Structures are given as C-alpha cells and as structure tokens.
C-alpha cells in the first residue's frame, strides 16, 4: 500500500503543531484521558520483561521493556498501517527527535524507506551481531496506544480505541535477534524527549511519572504505569504509592553515543549508592567506584530491566560475596556454601535454607543511598535464586554476578560499577518522578502481604 501523501503546507503544519504540542509544560495544562498501564510479563527462557502496546490499526504488540532506552522501535518489515508518516530531515521535529542521520533516495513505498527522512537506531541489547546494532532505520509518526487505568486505581481496561500520535523508530527483522519469541521491538522509558513517559505526558498533559512493579511470579504479570502519581491498588487493596523512600535520579553526563570532543548524556537512570551493608555491617569498598566519573561516565549505580541479575564490578563483587558468606555462616543462619551453579559463585543446599514470606532467611543486603536513613533493603526473595537441576543440584544461590573490571559501554564511555538487575527489582515498587528527578522505592512488598503479581487487569473486551 502506498504511503498517503500530504501537500507540503499541510505536512509542515502537522509537524510544527506536533512539535509545539510535545513542548507544552504538563504542569500548566489540564490532564486529559486516564493514565496508561500495561502488564509486564517475564519470559522464562530469556528472563526478559515484556509489555503490551497497540500499533498498526491497532493490533496487540509485544515489546521488550528497556528502562534505559531512549524510544520505542518496532520491526517495520511487513508493517501494516495507512496512517504513518516519516519525519523529514532539517525540520524542527528532526532536531527535537535527535536523528542520527538523513536517509536519502529510497523510493519504495514502505515505512523502512524514504527520501530525505530522519533515521534512528533500533537498539537491541541482546543482539550478538555488532553490525546489527549499527543499523539505522527511519523514524515514524503513527498511532500508538496502551491499556488505561480506571479511576479506582486498581483495574486496567482496554483503551486501544483511543490511540494517539507517537514518534518511534522502525527496525528490521534482523534486529529481533535474541529477543523473546513474539516480541517485535523495544519500549524505551529512558531520559529522552521521545521516551514513552515523556511523549505521553506531553500529549495528554499527564504528570511526568511512571512506575514499575516487576512480578516475581512465574505465571502472573507485574504492571507498568505511565502518567499517574497513584494510587496503585494491588492485592488486599494496598496502595503501593505509600510509603516510599526517595533518592535523587542522577544524570550520567557521558552516554554511549559520546565522543572525545562531544559528550552526550546517558538516557539511563542512575542512583547514588554510597555504601553497601551485609547483615547490618558496612562492606569496605573503593568509594571512588560508587561515583560517576564526569570525564568518561564510568562508575556509579545504574538501574536496568535488560540485565537479569545485579552486576558488580569485580572488587565490589568480591567484597560483598565474602561478607555475605561470612555472615551466612554465623548464627542464626549457620549456612555452609556448596558447589556453585553458573552464573553464580555462592550457593547453599536448598534443604538447609529456611524460607518465609520474604523469601530465604539469609543476611540482608542494604544499598545505602544519599543519606544513611535512605536504604534499599534486599531480602532473601531478591538476593537468592533457586536453581533446581533435574536429577542434579537443588540450591539457593546469591543472585549477583561479577561484571569484571570496569568494562566499557562504548569506545569512549565507561560502564557503571553497579547495575541493579531485574531480579532484584521484582516485587519492589519503583516510581520514577521525572519532574523532580527522583526515584521512589518500596523495597520488597512481600513483607506487606502483597506482590507485584496481585494487580488486577480487566479481561479484554471483544
């Protein structure tokens, strides 16, 4: 199907007013429409987190949840829509989007082709091919929608009948390498002008908030919320928006697209972990590793939904695991480590580990933030991973992995010292406040008698 053509004046006006609309200050406008919500499924084979959106007519679309990515991208090979538009180069919208380059002289009538159109990079963190992650594809404007949250704050209902115009990137079939079956792209929630929460806020004048509650259940989903400060009603009517502890969201000034003579800020979210305690005792660490290096962006603590288990720089990993083993061997735990199972290095026989509602009874790991009284407490439900091999080992393993010695994010940008992975976020409620740039976090909600799997989604209407 040929792409619908607009006359030049109308096309210019469309993009001009779209740009102005995106630039509106949310706090100065009335809120329109209910907030957005999506189930977050965890794929058992890849450990990837997946949300649901509606595109192309619209139809249900599964997207990788990538907390730190800048925007949405979707495989446009076979993309079926009559409403999409490319973004012309050298326009205000081109500059606003931050296009990587301009595609020229591609005359086919399909979303992955255009003449003098803006291109973005469809990034896949699981793609093994280096050349695949260097591909560029046209940026599109088309309809996009998610489920909505009703006014009770407890039940999500279908809202695909109310799509809105959104900017995202195309991708190609080869960009799907390594993604879970049925996933056709990625949903970016990162620090950028065209991430999902920022675009939704500009279009519907929502508060610039989003929240994640990743499920620890093997069968039931968690939930993602966009454009609401709460309430977030989970099982037993518990509102997870309170109480929360708060810590600043930090900007890393050197992102992966930086060059020696041009620094570009990272789109990923960092927090200021200042110390780590195991069983209440501070672990001796090289403090400089906990700070973000303004020169190359290395160090600090990043949040990631595409890393399954928390990664620690080698010296931090060694110090934390040694402290954990020592504490676990003492009373009241009295645990003796056994042969580890990859990718972990500290494991205990499952039969020797007592369990409670908060998970295995093991030493707590505290991530101390900008103040000593602001602590992300990691209990057994988030620190220990059950590994049961058929006919083999049945163990609980400390769910942290060695990230190596300062690996590189890119040629010019360093890697964080700590990456808090998805498993450590499960059954923890996280609220990202993009207006005040702070993170609200709950630590494990299991101790409150609820879970991230207890949010009720309405059945989809026929």
From TrEMBL:
- Give the range the annotation lists for the signal sequence: 1-29
Where is the protein situated, by its record's location annotation? Answer: Secreted, Extracellular space
The UniProt GO MF terms for this protein read: aspartic-type endopeptidase activity
Gene Ontology CC terms, in alphabetical order: extracellular region
- Example of a GO biological process term: proteolysis
Q: What is its main location?
A: secreted
Pfam families documented for this protein: TAXi_C, TAXi_N
Domain (Peptidase A1): residue spans on this chain: 49-442
- What family does the database annotate? Belongs to the peptidase A1 family.
Its name, as the record gives it, is Peptidase A1 domain-containing protein
């Amino acid at each position: 199907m040929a792409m619908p053509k607009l006359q030049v004046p109308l096309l210019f006006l469309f993009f001009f007013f779209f740009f102005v609309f995106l630039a509106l200050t949310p706090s100065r406008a009335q809120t329109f429409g209910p907030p957005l919500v999506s189930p977050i499924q965890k794929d058992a084979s890849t450990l990837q987190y997946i949300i649901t959106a509606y595109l192309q007519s619209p139809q249900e679309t599964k997207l990788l949840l990538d907390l730190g990515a800048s925007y949405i991208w979707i495989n446009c090979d076979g993309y079926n829509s009559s409403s999409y538009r490319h973004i012309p180069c050298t326009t205000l919208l081109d500059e606003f989007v931050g296009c990587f380059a301009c595609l020229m002289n591609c005359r086919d009538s399909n979303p992955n082709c255009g003449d003098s159109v803006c291109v973005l990079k469809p990034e896949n963190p699981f793609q093994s091919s280096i050349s695949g992650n260097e591909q560029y594809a046209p940026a599109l404007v088309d309809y996009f929608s998610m489920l909505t949250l009703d006014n009770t704050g407890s039940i999500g209902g279908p809202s695909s009948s109310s799509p809105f115009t959104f900017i995202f990137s195309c991708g190609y079939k080869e960009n799907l390498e390594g993604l879970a079956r049925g996933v056709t792209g990625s949903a970016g929630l990162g620090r950028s002008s065209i991430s999902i929460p920022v675009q939704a806020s500009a279009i519907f004048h929502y508060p610039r908030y989003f929240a994640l509650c990743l499920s620890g259940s093997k069968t039931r989903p968690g939930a993602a919320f966009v454009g609401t400060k709460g309430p977030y009603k989970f099982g037993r009517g518990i509102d997870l928006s309170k109480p929360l502890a708060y810590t600043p969201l930090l900007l890393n000034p050197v992102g992966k697209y930086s060059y020696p003579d041009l620094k570009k800020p990272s789109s990923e979210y960092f927090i200021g972990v200042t110390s780590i305690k195991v069983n209440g005792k501070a672990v001796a660490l090289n403090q400089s590793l906990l700070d973000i290096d303004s020169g190359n962006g290395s160090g600090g603590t990043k949040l990631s939904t595409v890393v399954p288990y928390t990664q620690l720089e080698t010296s931090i990993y060694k110090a934390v695991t040694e402290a954990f083993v020592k504490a676990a061997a003492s009373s009241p735990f009295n645990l003796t480590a056994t042969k580890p199972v990859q990718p972990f290095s500290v494991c205990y026989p499952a039969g020797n580990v007592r369990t409670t509602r908060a998970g295995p009874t093991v030493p707590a790991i505290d991530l101390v933030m900008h103040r000593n009284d602001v602590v992300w407490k990691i209990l057994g439900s988030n620190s220990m991973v059950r590994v049961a091999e058929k006919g083999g080992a049945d163990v609980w393993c400390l769910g942290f992995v060695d990230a190596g010695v300062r690996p590189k994010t890119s040629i010019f940008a360093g890697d964080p010292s700590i990456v808090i992975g998805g498993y450590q976020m499960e059954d923890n409620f996280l609220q990202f406040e993009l207006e005040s740039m702070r993170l609200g976090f709950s630590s494990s909600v299991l101790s409150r008698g609820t879970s991230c799997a207890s949010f009720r989604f309405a059945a989809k209407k026929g």
